[in-house]
Give the backbone structure.
Amino acid sequence: MPATAIDTYQFDNGLTLLVEQMPWLESAAVTFLVPAGCQRDPATQPGLAKLTAEMLQRGCGDLQSRELEQAMDQLGLARSTAVTNYHIRLSAAMPATRLSAALTIYASLLQRPLLPATQIDDGRMVCIQELLAMQDDLSQKLMEQLRIRQYPDPYSRSSHGTLETLQEISIDDVKQFYTQNFTPHETIISIAGNVDSKQIFQTVNELFGNWTGHETTQINTTPPPCGHHHIEQESSQTQIGIVFPSVPYSHPDYFQSRGAVGVLSDGMSSRLFSEVREKRGLCYTVFAMCHTLREQGCVLTYAGTTTERAQETLDVLLSELIRLGDGILPEELDRLKAKIKSGLIMQQESSNSRASSIAADWHLLGKVRTTGELSRILDDLSCDSINQYLDHNRPTDFRVVTLGQDPLDTSAATATDNTSTNSGVL
């Protein structure tokens, strides 16, 4: 499977189309990123973007809600909808021969949704059920709080909203949110699979070229809260989270940071899995991951453990994060490269993965990296380059969030911040 180029088309209305031709596949996939994520929620109406995304799927053009579902099912669309901080994301994978018909439906859905008032309560209940499920997922609840501790509002917001605000949002609020935020300006359509790029451009131009809308308004931010945080929860388990600043995906050193975090957490041979879980038996789940916005990034670290072993788990986690600053070993990097390259190879076998990936690249970078480019970046990673990065950017400025019966002693995290001489790269 050869590395393929990505064709990019910019439309006069601000829409961007990305196409990657993958002729060895029988499938095609499309991802729509509309700049109407939860950062656009009014401060008094968290959850409005989420409810709008739900109502968006309840009919469009001449199709009522049930008819829309049947039309998508007849095309065999494997579809999903999600609300992120930046976007409402709609994705679908299908046999390549049905892409044009699918684009016709999505053009109507995005530009001419019915947003039926008679179904607002049904849409509301779906959002409330997802909110309640999230609140029962203690690890997800903790990760939300970590982002709140790291990023300024509204870039740290959750899409779920609150029970109170979801119950009060009206269909008029949904329609106003749609009118203000569903615009071709900064909307991204990415398509990958067994498709013809020029033909796709003509189809998208016919369906979306006359879509009108204003530019999105500038967002004002407020700084994140300082210090550590404990959430009291009656439970025999304790959830532990640590966040510290790092570089975003757009930064030249991102893959140095990603390599270091991969040694820490990718796979069963990683340091956190072997040191915290296997050797010491401190927890049932442990990981670290890079998280990125356009201009900011961080590392999120998580462990789930028992109440009795929570303090020891926190101390060992901090110790491993600090030890990472001393550098990595060649054999650790070799294992990581093999794992990531396996992921790249598998991505080449999935049109859905590529459509999603190239859309994210365009949003974060303003360009798209091919799998060949990513492979070369990985090949260029070395222990020397990662260790040089770590030497200048040791993990520091930790913020700890715990969820459980009792707060933990976080003085070790604070002491590390106070004694560090590195101010970070962010």
